[in-house]
């Protein structure tokens, strides 16, 4: 019984990892937007959220085993957060540029993540 429980991967932990990667991507882009777009004002909250999400990701990495696809899917979730936040900021401030590229990249990455996680198509 102990071999079964130690060898299994916790799916709740995988979801938590992917959500934390998404939050880290959004916060990273919020800081980058503040540095590069003059209309965006500074806020301490993305800094706090970025530090806490990276710390929680590290703690989750130490606590639970990682499945094969999760690091790559986690990186994709990070970029979904970054490109999604970029599209949101550029929708708020149209003079910052077009958000078409950010939306397309975020949607393509979301489709790939959905396929890898088995939400799209048949996983066998």
From TrEMBL:
Transmembrane intervals: 40-58, 70-90, 96-114
Domain of life: Bacteria
UniProt-listed InterPro entries: DUF1422 (IPR009867)
Keywords, in A-Z order: Membrane, Transmembrane, Transmembrane helix
NCBIfam families: PRK11056.1
Protein's name according to its UniProt entry: Uncharacterized protein DUF1422
Biological source species: Vibrio diazotrophicus
